[in-house]
Amino acid sequence: MNNFIKSTFLILIGILLLACEEEVTPPQIEDAEDKVVVNGLIAPSFEQINVQVSKSRNAFGVIEFDDSDIIQDAIVAISNGTEERNLTFDASSQVYTLPTTNFPIAVSYTHLTLPTTPYV
To answer: CB neighbours (10 Å) of residue 91?
Structure first.
């Protein structure tokens, strides 16, 4: 019985010594560069092609999205392989837009080119 108490005591001491914590800080994640985020959905049934181009946000702390994250001076284009059209920025909705009457969407033939921005 005496050996059992000694063994239990030694195990508990070992656990307490191993359980000490050291604060670890993430490696400069907060100073990471902004990335360009392209958000849009293109479908033949839609009346408009709408694409939002913005800067990424830091994932730590409170995330608040405001108009300063929207990139308003990008060049956003859509192509079907033979024709290409630029989308224009609509300040009221904060998206790049093009009516599908000006550029019909065909299944499997239309694609959006990556936006050109001062941030890329």
So the answer is: 9
Other C-beta atoms closer than 10 Å to the C-beta of 84 total 11
DSSP per-residue letters across 13-31:
HHHHHHT-------SSGGG
Mean pLDDT of 40-58: 86
pLDDT band at 55; cut points 50, 70, 90: confident
Question: Mind spelling out the 3-state secondary structure of 32-63?
Answer: CCCCEEEEEECCCCCCEEEEEEEECCCCCCCC
Q: What is the mean pLDDT of residues 98-115?
A: 78
pLDDT of 110 over the 70 cut: no
Three-point CA angle 79, 83, 89, nearest 5°: 55
C-beta separation of 97 from 87 below 8 A: yes
Strand partners, 52: 39
* d(C-alpha 35, C-alpha 58), whole Å: 10
Model pTM above 0.85: no
The label of the residue with tokens 């409170």 reads: 62
Task: Give the C-alpha separation, 52 to 38, whole Å.
Answer: 6
